[in-house]
Design goal:
The complex is a heterodimer. Chain A is of the alpha+beta class. Helices cover about 25% and strands about 25% of the residues of chain A. In chain A, helix 12 packs parallel to helix 13. In chain B, strand 2, helix 2 and strand 3 form a beta-alpha-beta unit. In chain B, helix 9 packs antiparallel against helix 10 and helix 10 runs antiparallel to helix 11. The longest helix of chain B is centred in the C-terminal third of the chain and has 18 residues. The chains are: A alpha+beta, B alpha+beta.
């Protein structure tokens, strides 16, 4: 009888190996169809009329001219007369027509009148935000930070910050909706395949049983695609009205304006240490905006528990756009502020940053040993001791190099979910779960776990996901998908296998508990000569397949990981241009199912982190309340040539792997901003206090000190 | 996109006959890399679009009388495939190398590069070329002007000329041939550009009924030491933050005459005459290049957020000069 636990390191055939994703050829050959690619017969195209104002009341809507346009099939009101819009790009009316161009034309014929209201899109100044525009969160205090700052041998003070950025998923938000009678079929780019039925059902007044959701592949979500959203519901409503399928994908402009912001966070920070580097005091006053919602309350300092520490936070309410969870909500911001302030203190202490953080690693609590081990490994990988210099690269020439480090934590775990394994009499196997693959490798991970469990090659298992007709699985958020699906898959496959063992045992002259499945054989444990091939064993099922359910199993998963990243940058001090030359990332995520897709997650996170460290900002104009860069021209991301060398190391010692599966989406994206900022400070001798680290900011910082 | 008539002439004469007396009547379509996006965003809404890519005489790079002739619809890809005519013009090659995107290289034309419209984000977001508010005041000085002009910005125009080729062409003394209903005229590339003073005036002097047909460089330009340096925040597809293009008439190691032209820092390609005077008669070395870079910044009036571009001008000029004599 197979037990529900992970195989030991010596007995892992597939788990932990570097395996290419099973849908790779399907995707790279263009056969995989994304939401955008769906085109059921008779499909209409929908476009949105959105608010040009940051804040306004809708006073009139006239759709009559659009409705008279031949080929216009349905209109949907998102924001009724009398209601308010709270950011530029806020959806007001939708229109569906025979062609995309016609829908565009029709949208321009819709007249919406607004009564503009006062707005705020600047988040730089809590004091001047105005009444009703900010909320002070209750302060936190441990020990006596003021006294500790006075007693400190060395103190450092600075103001640091990072702006609102967006998710900027490769694939925009949107869906294609089709009705067949009272049954709604939607293809939607979503992180939550199994969780959308109720949203559609209640909005459209149909039973959840009639909602059929499909998302086989998607181009990223990063926390911004948990809901059907108003535009998802609108597509379904217009499709019902028109009696034809409707495609409503946001264009890049509306995507950047309306489909999610990462909150900004700025802080004035004072820190103090003893002469030997022991950190004793922290005090911070932070502010930031999550649009019109309060957003999460940042916890400063990040990770490190300074004995005397105080923190106050003010949320500013702005019309900058709606906040949505952004890969590791709050963590990258808190990490940057903390690591930058502490690195500046290390510089004032004339300490090597690595020595400083190692000295204080005990303040991180339970994971101190993990961080210490990872810091030493990362230092070795990047050549920290050979390359390190004190602040300001004194070598001649205008290119200055520097090193910086940061570390992070994230909970992760496994979300609730179910998996169904079916073993057919012909030996074929299907595992099905209503999960989703955001591009991370979830489909592959499920296949690996099932194949490993059943002792079959990976291609002998058919993996079905991305549809809510399969057993439900949780939303992909918080780095919980791999934990959820690997444990439910392991459980269901093991249960199915035990049923097969029971059928096969008599012919091997033994009982089910004495059997194992290895290398395509069912065999007697300890006596490999007594075996039957998988197919022959399955033939004993007669005509009825084995079907076994499994659900998330806490004995197979864990939570809480640590990671360390180090960056090496080259800064042209004449132009202020920063290049990320090298990053090393050392990461723990418990038991790794697929080394290749796990490492890909970390590579991707380092790239995404480089983007927000050097380029990304939602640039707002207070005069007009509008966003100036809702496009890929000025909402800048790294191109291939802007990405330096990235080296990833995953912790695979037994002490990590024995914990079970955790999850990796979030943790590695937390540190890059801090590591790169610290590397720039090390290179040029002065802190560039804001992200992104653009040439103007580098030159401004150099104008105040540092090397020139 | 507003519906439009489409003209597909096979001669320049036919093309001109299809153009209108103002910009609303008709627009010339070459690569379309700019026009199409302007039309999609309703920034430009011409009633007729006249495609000139079917006029075969307008395409191709060749040596003429020892000089260089570039047909207006020659694509950047054409020049990559057949770089021989550019062999004495590293400044042009550098400008073309900076055009990163494969699509842009395949479709974009040299004439279109000169005639593309500014990238000012107020303009592109529908606030008009001069970005005026309801009171007729420009939004740029008090807005986000990090990518705007530091020269020639007395107002109301604050945008920057985005052309990659204009700085080297002006520095090298190129001329243009333009055909209109009354025949052909030739003018220095510099005179294609102007700083608009009021709404309705464009940043190009070409008239609605005219077509840019050729870019010409004289044989003498081949004897100029020349180079372009673009300051790029990203290697990836991006606009330079500042560009300097230099063309030097040398006597041995001494500069007899210099042309220094800046891009991305003024509404027009900006002659840095201070730098040119600084260089005249000097033996060019790093110190002289540094002084010329400094001299190039004379007259700069940075706005609230683009003071850094003054420094970028210093560096771009210095690096272009050193590249020219390398």
């Amino acid at each position: 009888m197979a037990e529900i636990k992970w195989p030991s390191a010596a007995n892992r055939g597939l788990i932990g190996k570097s395996i290419s994703r099973i849908d790779g050829p399907w995707k790279s050959s263009g056969r995989a169809k994304y939401t955008y690619d769906q085109g059921p017969a008779g499909m209409l195209y929908a476009k949105l009329v959105t608010s040009p104002y940051a804040h306004a009341k809708v006073t009139a809507i006239d759709t009559s001219r659009a409705e008279r346009l031949p080929g216009v099939r349905a209109i949907h009101i998102f924001t009724a007369v009398g209601k308010e819009v709270n950011w530029e790009g806020h959806e007001v009316v939708g229109v569906a027509a025979d062609t995309e161009e016609l829908a565009e034309d029709a949208a321009r014929l819709i007249r919406v009148e607004y009564d503009p209201q006062p707005y705020l899109v600047a988040d730089t100044d809590a004091q001047h935000a105005g009444p009703g525009r900010f909320r002070e969160m209750s302060p936190r205090k441990t020990g006596d930070p003021e006294q500790a700052l006075q007693q400190a041998d060395v103190t450092s003070e600075g103001t640091y910050g990072q702006p609102v950025i967006t998710h900027c998923c490769h694939e925009a938000h949107g869906s294609v909706a089709e009705w067949k009678g009272d049954e709604l079929y939607v293809w939607i780019s979503t992180q939550n395949v199994s969780g959308l039925s109720n949203e559609y059902a209640s909005a459209l007044n149909i039973p959840a049983t009639n909602v059929h959701v499909d998302c086989q592949v998607m181009g990223g979500g990063f926390g911004s695609k948990f809901a059907a959203d108003s535009w998802g519901v609108a597509a379904a409503a217009m499709a019902r009205k028109a009696g034809r399928p409707v495609k409503l994908m946001l264009d890049r402009e509306v995507e950047l304006l309306s489909a999610g912001c990462r909150p900004s966070l700025h802080a004035k920070i004072r820190v103090g240490a003893k002469r030997d580097g022991t950190l004793i005091a922290w005090d911070s006053e932070s502010w930031g905006t999550a649009g019109m919602s309060g957003g999460g309350v940042p916890q400063l300092p990040y990770i490190i528990q300074v004995p005397n520490s105080g923190h106050r936070h003010t949320s500013i309410f702005t019309n900058i756009g709606p906040a949505r969870a952004w890969r590791a909500p709050n963590h990258p911001q808190m990490c940057f502020l903390t690591m930058a302030a502490l690195d500046d203190l290390a510089a004032k202490l004339n300490m090597d940053s690595l020595d400083f953080f190692l000295k204080n690693v005990g303040l991180t609590g339970e994971r101190a040993g993990v961080y210490k081990q990872q810091m030493l490994m990362a230092a070795d990988m990047i050549g920290w001791k050979q390359k390190w210099h004190s602040r300001g690269d004194k070598t001649p020439g205008h290119i200055k190099r520097g090193l910086g480090l940061s570390f992070h934590t994230w909970a992760g775990g496994g979300h609730m979910g179910y998996c169904r394994t079916t073993i057919h009499p012909d030996g074929s196997v299907e595992v099905a779960t209503g999960s989703q693959d955001l591009g991370t490798g979830t489909r592959t991970v499920i296949g690996i776990v099932a194949a490993e469990t059943l002792g079959l090659p990976l291609d002998a298992v058919r993996v079905e996901i991305g549809n809510n007709k399969y057993p439900p699985d949780g939303a992909s958020g918080g780095s919980t998908t791999v934990g959820g699906v690997s444990s439910s898959t392991r459980t269901s496959a093991t249960t199915a296998l035990n049923e097969l063992f029971a059928k096969a045992a008599p012919s091997l002259g033994t009982t089910a508990d004495k059997l194992e499945a290895v290398g395509g054989q069912i065999r007697v444990i300890g006596d490999p000569s007594k075996s039957i091939p998988w197919k022959k064993a399955c033939a004993k099922l007669g005509t009825t397949p084995i079907v076994a359910m499994g659900q998330r199993n806490f004995s197979l998963i864990s939570s809480g990981v640590g990671g360390v990243q180090m960056a090496e940058v080259a800064v042209d001090i004449d132009t202020g241009i920063v290049r990320m030359e090298k990053m090393v990332a050392v990461q723990d995520c418990g038991l790794i199912i697929d080394m290749k897709t796990a490492m890909s997650q970390v590579y991707g996170a380092c790239i995404m982190g480089t983007c927000y460290a050097l380029y990304e900002e939602k640039i707002m104009d207070q005069q007009t309340g509008t966003c100036l860069n809702p496009n890929m021209e000025f909402y800048k991301l790294s191109g291939l040539d802007d990405i330096g060398d990235i080296t990833v190391h995953m912790m695979t010692e037994d002490s990590y792997q024995d914990r079970g599966v955790i999850g990796l989406g979030e943790p590695p994206v937390i540190s890059p901003g801090a590591a790169i900022s610290n590397a720039v400070a090390n290179a040029i001798g002065v802190r560039v206090p804001e992200l992104p680290i653009t040439p103007d900011r580098v030159l401004a910082a150099l104008g105040k000190g540092g090397l020139v | 996109m507003r519906p439009f008539e489409y003209g597909n002439p096979s001669t320049v004469k036919q093309a001109i006959s299809l153009l209108g007396s103002d910009w609303e009547q008709a627009a010339v379509l070459a690569g379309g890399t700019d026009l199409i996006s302007l039309m999609k965003d309703y920034i430009d809404t011409p009633k007729r679009v006249v495609n000139i890519k079917s006029i075969s005489a307008l395409r191709g790079a060749s040596e003429v009388n020892g000089g260089l002739r570039l047909g207006a619809t020659t694509t950047f890809e054409d020049l990559f495939e057949n770089p021989a005519p550019l062999r004495d013009f590293p400044s042009l090659r550098a400008a073309i190398d900076g055009i990163y995107s494969a699509q842009m290289r395949s479709m974009g034309t040299v004439g279109g590069d000169l005639l593309q419209r500014p990238r000012c984000w107020y303009y592109r977001n529908g606030f008009g070329l001069l970005a005026l508010d309801s009171k007729g005041q420009s939004l740029v000085p008090h807005g986000d002007n990090r990518y705007h002009a530091i020269f020639g910005n007395a107002g109301p125009a604050y945008f920057v000329s985005p052309s990659s080729l204009a700085p080297p062409l002006v520095a090298l003394g190129a001329t243009l041939r333009i055909q209109g209903p009354k025949g052909e005229r030739e003018l220095p590339v510099a005179e294609l550009f102007r700083i608009p003073r009021h709404t309705g005036e464009r940043e190009h002097t070409i008239q609605p009924k005219e077509i840019l047909t050729e870019i010409l460089l004289p044989a003498s330009a081949r004897r100029l030491r020349n180079a372009t340096y673009e300051v790029r925040e990203r290697h990836f597809m991006d606009w330079p933050l500042a560009t300097a293009s230099v063309a030097l008439r040398m006597e041995g190691r001494r500069v007899r005459q210099a042309r220094v032209v800046l891009g991305q820092v003024a509404p027009i390609p900006w002659r840095a005459e201070g730098a040119e005077r600084e260089l005249a008669g000097k033996t060019l070395d790093e110190a002289v290049a540094t002084r010329a870079g400094e001299a190039a910044t004379v007259g700069a009036h940075p706005l609230s957020k683009n003071g850094y571009k003054v420094q970028l001008v210093r560096v771009a000029v210095k690096r272009a000069l050193l590249a020219a004599i390398a």
